[in-house]
Structure formats: C-alpha cells, structure tokens
Amino acid sequence: MTSTHDPLVSPQWLADHIADPKLRLIDASYKMPAARPPSAREDYLARHLPGAAFYDVDAVADPGNSLPHMVPSPEQFARYVGALGVGADSQVVVYDSGSYLGAPRAWWSFKLYGFDNVRVLEGGLKAWVADGHATEIGEVVPRAQDFAPRFDAARLRRIDQMVGNLTSKAEQVVDARSRERYQGAVVEPWPGRRPGRIPGSLNVPFTDLLNPDGTMKSPGALREVFAAAGVDLEQPIVTSCGSGVTAAVITLALTRLGVDRTALYDGSWAEWGLPDGPPVATGVS
Q1: Known catalytic residue: 241?
Q2: Which CATH number fits the domain that encloses residue 124?
Q3: pTM above 0.85?
Q4: pLDDT digits (tens, 9 = 90+) for 142-152
Q5: Where is the Rhodanese domain (predicted)?
Q6: Domain of 29?
C-alpha cells in the first residue's frame, strides 16, 4: 500500500499549529552509547521546544531483552506514551537535535503500535532555532492520557524471519550503516559484534538521504539515492542498521516516496553481529 502524505512537517507549520490543544510535541533525541556528555536527556533539559516531553529511546524497550532498545510490549508502550500525554485524538510531532537520530525511531514506533497521526519535524531542534522560534528549559510533565495500542506486526522483523529471508530472498534488506561498517572494513561500535553485513543486503547510508544542512533530500533526490543502491521501490523492503535507530531514517524516506508498508529489523546488527549469530558477508558487494 502506498501513501502520498509527507511524514515531515516544517518548523513554520509547527509554529502555526503549536497552540492546538491536541498537539503533543515529543523530543526523541538520541545519542550513541559512546557519545560524550551531555546525554540526550541533559540536552533536552537545557533546551527544548515549548511543551515538549522527552521520549527516551533506550527506555521505550523490552526490559527482559539485553539487546539495545528492543520494542516493548503494546501495553508497555501504551503506558509510556500515555504518560507523555499522547491519547487517541492527539496530533504527535516528534523531533530530535536535527541529526535524524531518534525522531524517526520514535515515529516508526508509534506506527508499529497502530498510531498514524504522527509526523517528524524537518530539521529538528536545529531548524526550529534557526528559524527564530522560542525554546524552553526544564522538564515537561504532561497530563497522562489513555493510549490504546494496535500492534502492527507487519512493520517488524525478528531474527528468525531475517534468517529465513536468506533463502527465500522475498524481501530486500536495506542497511543504513556507513559503507565502511557495511563492508566490514572497521571495528563495530557495538562491543563484541563481528564486522560485516547481512548477506545479500543493500547499502543506503542514512546520511546519503540528508542534505548538508540536515534536512531530508527532496523526493526526486531520494529516488536517485535508492536507485543508485539497487533498491527496487516496487518490491518488499526491510530496513536495518546498527540497533534499529537509523534504519527508521530509511523507513521515513521511503514513506515520503509513498512506500509505507515496509518493515524494520529491530535487532539489526546488534543482534545479527553477535559472535554466535547467522552468516555475515564482508567486502565490496
């Protein structure tokens, strides 16, 4: 199924609608574990959009799984986002620092649990500030709402499905990591993981989808990036990355092109790359 609705909103659109009582702003900024302080939460406390609550990508996770930020149960997700003030009639806009680290993952998570009235702020906090809009400091604690999840399993892939796809080749696997990581030419940032890629996967580094100013490329330019990587937009697609965060940037870009029914491999390389994991490929594909 395709969609022609752009999942991105501009800073000006948000400024024009920020007083809407149904609007819920979510700061989903994320930093890799090896990033230097301050943390994403500390950045949020120091500066965020007016009324925005903080969505912790690492906290919205299955507490019984040792892999990073694996999706929680529908009930756990409902409790978390309900506490952020998100209800059935909310209009959610998620954003991050402007790096596209975090917001697409949160956006995808809402869609995974059946909530479609969610958009991503183009350019994030960086673009908002550059346009001269106001910010706030400190914690925002919204009034809790009831959130009713409707889990959409078609948007998620588990490792057994990914292993099966090695044989069936029913779905294209598109890896958002850098070319060096995809080729296995560098040490993986996730400790203890083997270098390389899922055999047969294609590579679209998520940074290739962005302009130098941090905004996402136009639909025409996005199509060129996917075509150059050998991705067939008419065939099923699964996105992957290091731990399921930047894979959602590819998912977001595909949705801009009307390709909305993709899936995301949640475990990504943090799972596949474990020492006892499935086969890996290396080198230039």
Answers
A1: yes
A2: 3.40.250.10
A3: yes
A4: 999 999 999 99
A5: 19-137, 167-281
A6: 8-151
